[in-house]
Amino acid sequence: MTRMKRVISFTLINFLAIFLCLWKLHANPLELNVKEHVLRNGLKLLMMEKHNVPIVCLRINFRVGSVDERPGITGVSHLFEHMMFKGTKIFGTKDYAAEKPLLDKEDALVAEIAWEKGMETQDREKIAALEKELETTREKLRDMVVKDEIFSLYLRHGAVGLNAATSSDGTFYICDIPANKLELWAFIESDRMKNRVLREFYSERDVVMEERRLRVETSPFGALIEQLNAVTFIAHPYRLPTIGWRSDIQNVTKAETAEYFERYYSPNNAVIVIVGDFQPENAIKLVEKYFGDIPRQPDPPKVKTIEPEQKGERRIEVEFDSNPYMAISYHIPGIGHQDIYALDVLSSLLSEGRTSRLYKSMIEGKRIAVMANAGIGIGRFPETFTFYAAPRAPHTVEEVEKAFYEEVELLKTKPPSEWELQKIKNQLEASFIRSLDSSSGLAGQIGHYEILSDWRYINTFLEKVSEVTAEDVMRVAKKYLNKRNRTVAMLVKKENGNGESAK
Length: 503
Known about the structure:
This protein is of the alpha+beta class. The chain has helices spanning about 1-25, 75-85, 95-115, 125-145, 150-155, 180-195, 200-215, 220-230, 245-250, 255-265, 280-290, 340-350, 355-365, 395-415, 420-435, 440-450, 455-465, 470-480; strands at about 35-40, 45-50, 55-60, 160-165, 170-180, 270-275, 315-320, 325-330, 370-375, 385-390, 485-490.
């Protein structure tokens, strides 16, 4: 029985090997057939037909994220992502004509209360009266709101995957809908661009504050990464947290948020992606009909700041009442640079799966860490290669840091074997193809790379990765993963009253 199992296993392995060889010989290189159309107002439409199921996957992406913000309004991109679900002049309200004066009154009262509280000698009675009037106004506004009307409308018509996301580089709105509901989507989304209403602005600002508390202020890893980015980048706006700084979230005004919308949410700064069961000529007509009359705006300002070359190691400690963590960041180029592909292979070589070097060394071998990962950021601008880890008690972050440097130095002096390199390339290829397996995945990836640079990055990725050599891996390790170029962040226990670390 054992011998039979071995024979079957051997035969299966041979069969798979032959199949893979034949597939590689005859398979065509990955090339997505994406059709492009640009409206006169600058709105770009990217379309790809996929008729296997009667679904259309839609994305509206805006080339605006925290990298476009400035101190004082950090987090406004993420806040506006929330506000886009609050409705328009026809969605989310029982009577906009009656609601509008109340919204204006709420803004005026908020401004007057802030003014009075900022006076050296406060009139407490006046402030109390204004706050009472504000609460009365808000009660009337709450009676006029139709909660989550856009969500409900989509769900009633079979939509799934309704969501949105904000990153450093872009803002993404997601919807997968039955193919026969494409016009409904065009009507709703064009109305959100034309007639958005910042209702429930002040309460949603509080929601974002709670989100910040959850993600950063009560999260040891979130706090560590926020501080790491703020020190890694000393000039470039990648140093700003996407969620925003606490004081900025608390104080950003509705007027500043509206102005930000006018500047960055213009059709000439947007991309619509459609993937699924549709006819491109019909889609173009619908998009022209519903989005074509949205006026083009002046092109938004470009990020001009270039991060200066780092000239020495930076180290920080973040006090937090938790188990220890550590992270190390190295500056690397942005999308489009040839070294990105070798760095991608390098990061996978270090931490992709149970056969990766960090796993075999730190987790399985020396057993000094419970988590050890490395990854690269790919952005509109030069990003970072980041290693992060959590030591296994009683081992320390210092032991983990030393072990990581040993693995890096090994890569600089001894190239990975051909077998190891091919394994990583196969993993990257499989992962990349899986991300494009569904219509939803295709829509997401096409839109994502178009915001960063150009959707055609997808068509060249596998070829570029296949060209990476062992010498390329050694070269980028030497070039980027060095002491002069790194920032090290350690999460440590809060000190006790005697100035000593709490045990």
